[in-house]
Amino acid sequence: MTEPTSFDLHATAEVAATADVVYRVASDITRMGEWSPECTGGEWTTGEPGAVGAHFKGHNRFRDDTWTTECEVVAAEPGRRFAWAVLAQPDPSENPVWSFEIEPTADGCRLTQRFVMTSPPSRLLAIRDSLPPEKAATFLEFRRGRLQEAMQQTVDRIKAAVEG
Questions:
Q1: pLDDT digit string (tens) for 94-103?
Q2: Would you give the end-to-end CA distance of the chain in angstroms?
Q3: Cα Dmax for the chain
Q4: What pLDDT shows up at residue 1?
């Protein structure tokens, strides 16, 4: 059996706050380190912060490994959706995309973080290929599980911060 190499993950939390309030918090990449167990923060590098086409660097850590990604905002719809592509692939259509999607509900809104990756970036494949065969065989599935847990923690922490 071949290990799947694409991801379409999501995590959701019901938040007792307006969609606009949740959007302002979730789209502030400079505060991402407050919510995410893996992303330690971000900094805007070009363009109008938070606007489509703006670029930022995202700083990340897992265990002893640290790395920085270059990202571009691909959707900025206040109160609805904020998304960015990780500029990791030669073909832009294959870049992984992270998003926060917000839907109004009777009691506030539903916040969903989504991660879509059609093919693993070279950095991820290099890590997998450096592992012993028994670990390499399940590395992407391990990464999928880790991301799923981290995404749930992120939306839960945003919920807690907004509901204060």
A1: 899 999 999 9
A2: 46
A3: 51
A4: 43
